[in-house]
Amino acid sequence: MSTDLNLTSTNQPVDGPRLSIGQRMQGLGSSARQYGIFGALLVIILLFQLLTDGRLLMPNNVAALFQQNAYVMVLAIGMVMVIVAGHIDLSVGSVVAFVGGVVATSMASWGLPWMVAVLLGLAVGAVVGAWQGFWIAYVGIPAFIVTLAGMLIFRGLALAIVGETIAGLPPAFIKIAKGSLPNVLGFLGQMDWVTLVIGIAAVLAIAFSQLRARRSLHKHNLTVEPVGLFAVKLALIALGIGFLTVVLSKSAGGTPIILVIVGVLVVGYTFVMGRTVFGRHIYAIGGNRQAARLSGVDIRKIDFWIFVNIGMLAGAAAIVTTSRAGAAVAAAGDSFELDAIAACFIGGAAVTGGIGRVSGAIVGALVMGVLNMGLSIMGVDASWVKAIKGLVLLLAVAFDLVNKRRAGTQ
Amino acid sequence: MDTDNILEMRGITKRFSGVVALDDVNLVVKRGEIHAICGENGAGKSTLMNVLSGIYPYGSYEGDIVYEGEPVEFRGIRDSERKGIVIIHQELALSPFLSIAENIFLGNEQASRGVVDWNRTNANAAELLARVGLNERPDTRIVDIGVGKQQLVEIAKALSKEVRLLILDEPTAALNDEDSAHLLGLIRELKDHGITSIIISHKLNELRAIADTTTIIRDGHTIDTLAMNGEVPVTEEHLIRLMVGRSMDNRFPDHVAHFGEEVLRVEDWTVHHPVDQGRKVVDRASIAVRRGEIVGLAGLMGAGRTELAMSLFGRTYGAHISGQAYKDGQPVELRSVHQAINHGLAYATEDRKRFGLNLIDTVQHNISAAALRKLSRRGVVDRREEGKVAEQYRRELNIKTPTVAVLAGKLSGGNQQKVVLSKWIFADPDVLILDEPTRGIDVGAKYEIYTIINRLADEGKGVIFISSELPELIGVCDRIYALSQGVVTGVVDRADFTQELLMTYMTMDKDGIAR
Fold it and tell me: Which of A233, A363, B373, B504 is the most buried (most CB within 10 A)?
């Protein structure tokens, strides 16, 4: 410890008045906000379940929901970090097309094994990110401009590389986005055991980590959410995952491979944002850039690596998109950046930076995905789907602002 | 009603959420005179002018304003401007990428039916520029002219509004000698044309040269109004005596200092203004601090205290910085905040909301922000340890918050300040620079912060304490450096502390100092 000011044992109870529920909740403002997004997703799912006569949550549709929207989730993870830091990235759609072209060429023309091609795709994405990060962090050009330029540059390069399409990709590569985990454990009735095992493991892991976090908070006399709320939260999570597991286990293939990949990314990046120095510095520079600088945070370094990271994730999204299409297309990734940005803001990220979560962005992506799927099952025209998605984005952010104003935090 | 008076402010009292900023202030300005208002930082000069110009609208203060013989109730700056009262703030309110002419007529465009008449605009502007003696084309952009000329543009703008009472807030603070002389000459000329001026300034020689009358304000009270051209000339000593003498009844904790080795020495530190790069904001300043010592930096607005501190702290302010810093006797480079922190420096800012805290993050995260590495292994933060540390400081510094998970923005000023202090104490520096650590916080919290400062010194840290309140500096410091216009004009040891002596150094003209 830094000083020899008389250190009292941390096991002593906190002196001071007992806290009311309201005061306890005050410290949980951000998590309360988080529940709100989950609630909205739930409402939308139920709404479309009704409107589509139960077709929305049919097993194959649920599997397709993840397969169709995996790219948004991957990009939204990178984008939420960019947005929290107070930037924006308009180039990811074009980068997806460009990297997709490189990956497809490397397999179709150079004959690289698919695994090497995947690594190449991630690396090229990271290099693209480093290029943009350099201009933003070290030259000081606003990200809006740099990535707007990137949007043009990489779309151009994609057209140059791809021509129109590059097809003939190895089946193993195509499985990334379209395949499911093999049903090696057999079936329980109609249900795939592999999916069930993963689902049960996920519920146990979440329950265990939540309980551990809670115990640790208790031990150090830090704010703990009320026990009832905690139990309800855990029960809802278990119920949600349980339901998803059962539905997916009945789908044609079981667990989509892409769901596992997205799951790993979500867990990994939640950890990065919440637990690492890097993540903390991102929130610090987004919340108050000058204060972060005067606290010794190397702002330029953080900015640079945020863009390297989203470049790499754009590479991952390129692999997913190319694999799903079965070919590289020069027009791929069109308006992907807008989907990712919308997901972040629906998921509660602040336009001014400093606020936003990976889980929020994922839920935001799911809201958009469910809307998309629900409306298309209902046979609504694609042009109207677009307009409705735009309205939802506007309303989500407006709702958020009004709420904040009512809470008096502006 | 004496019609010789253009303005009478009677019994003006202004409160900010319970704090009295002005208490029964009276000001009488005669028609056609140059009236100076002087006082320490925070004495209430600017507040009084904001009341006069309607920035603080009628109803938000008590008392009467009588202008040109009739009571007035200004509800905004437009009301006062319509009556010919124009205020020119220290921070000029010009739009940098618009031309001189556009700025002069901003909000008062020379237009017919919504279409700007550029010929008329430029012709009228040229006429006004001639009146203020500014030899620039009206279509020159504001960024392309120096601060001195910008000041003249502000006056031209005031003239375009048919100004009768011109208020200038520290007009020469940012100007070099030549520009200052020109400006003062212009104000005299305006006087000959019947324009009354009120000048807020603490350059005493300047006041003696230009003012007909001087009103001294201290702690929100009018202390005295002096005729400057009377039979007995007013001396600077007399003005200083009236300006200082804030009561010392603030209690300060007892403290016996134990000095160790010299921990930081700065020699010939010179800093130029980041935009107006020809101007020296800090000029060959040399200071030193020993372990266990609390060293004060005293100075009025524009003296360069904060600029000195921030330029030392990883060059976070200024351009063309020269000079040498020594840490524990060894020369050190302090080119980035990171380097400064590694060399054991910490700087707690005067503007905690803008530069000190992430208001939308928790108290805990703010406390750990400057030394997160100490709480992490291989890049992963140990949140348990972080929670313990935050909780420890919450208790030791008595930060009043239900938990450390509350957002920093929800705390009161004094408690926010304690969070900033916690952040830097946890970083465990050898030298802690505290810039106005008690600004805007209540008396009880001030006492607590003085106690913390003493404790840090007793732990062997060197403390540099910047404050605008002389009683506070005298009550807490072991030694005080006085700065004026970027120059260290004097060093005073504890035994010799008086407010008068310090103020004499603080108002000293930099050219009058023998080097």
Answer: A363
